[in-house]
Specification:
mainly alpha; 69% helix
């Protein structure tokens, strides 16, 4: 709210209040920023692919090293945990392969969102590029990695002769929601971690906790009558709306509601923060 002071004829001070238009203007600038990022989609694809090439520069297998390590982890953990949980190896292996691959994508989105701006500080300081482009770059980069790791899931399904059928189509809306949430996480954590550099290790610790409580290596059915409580875990809900259809199952309405509610809150918080601090990001990196 702006305040204007005027001296009256008798020395009195009159105060005029009129609405502050700065937030509305910031929203317009933020929307313009996103439109510019959408127009630079070719640049975003190029930068994401360049990130992958630079990450595995000089490597023989390139990004398939990550695929190989994922396959080895699935093979070793599948044999061990199927015995610990008393499950059939054929049933548990398919669940574990899909869970670890999808979790790797979600975890990378969150952790790399913390450095969405600080890792590109040279670009931000030297040239003008839409700030919303950097979180999109993180999402596209991890989509490429996910495409490599999906090979492991397909091979496991072929070896075990399992296939989700038509229910797999239900995973498409969930994956689209993941992409929206991935950009939102970047717009939320990117500026916060640029301003407060002790947030990334906190986020990494929280993701490690979420790994153990979100039914990644164990099945939610193992909770028995307490399985309904998993709907209150937003990380599990987001994971389940993609994982369950790919396992030939349909998520419950409570899971969808939990995922949509959390996504709405996440996108709302990300938008409000981005609108407020967009103009300060260049000074924080």
């Amino acid at each position: 709210m702006n305040v204007a002071l005027h001296n009256g004829s008798r020395g009195a001070v009159a105060i005029d209040f009129h609405p502050d238009q700065s937030f509305a203007r910031r929203q317009l600038l933020a929307m313009r920023d996103m439109r510019e990022a959408a127009g630079l989609w070719r640049l975003c694809l190029t930068l994401a692919w360049l990130d992958i090439r630079l990450r595995y520069r000089g490597s023989v297998l390139g990004p398939f090293w990550l695929t190989l390590s994922t396959a080895l982890m699935i093979g070793s953990m599948g044999v061990l945990y199927s015995a610990l949980f008393g499950m059939k190896l054929s049933e548990y292996m398919s669940f574990l392969a899909l869970s670890l691959v999808l979790w790797g994508f979600l975890s990378a989105l969150v952790t790399e969102a913390c450095t969405a701006y600080t890792s590109d500080e040279n670009i931000i300081r030297s040239m003008r590029v839409a700030y919303s482009l950097y979180p999109v770059r993180v999402v596209v980069r991890n989509l490429v990695v996910l495409a490599h790791n999906v090979v492991v899931v397909v091979l496991v399904d072929l070896l075990l002769w399992t296939w989700p059928g038509q229910d797999a189509l239900l995973a498409v809306p969930g994956l689209l929601l993941w992409l929206v949430d991935g950009v939102a996480v970047g717009l939320l954590l990117g500026p916060l971690c640029a301003r407060f550099r002790d947030i990334p290790p906190i986020v990494a610790s929280l993701m490690q906790i979420a790994f153990f409580i979100s039914a990644v290596i164990w099945k939610p059915s193992q909770l028995g009558e307490h399985e309904w409580m998993m709907a209150f875990n937003p990380v599990f809900a987001l994971l389940e709306i993609v994982r369950a259809p790919l396992l030939g199952q349909a998520p419950s309405a409570a899971i969808y509601l939990s995922a949509l509610l959390f996504s709405a809150l996440l996108c709302g918080a990300a938008w409000l923060l981005f609108v407020r601090v967009r103009g300060r990001i260049a000074f924080w990196v």
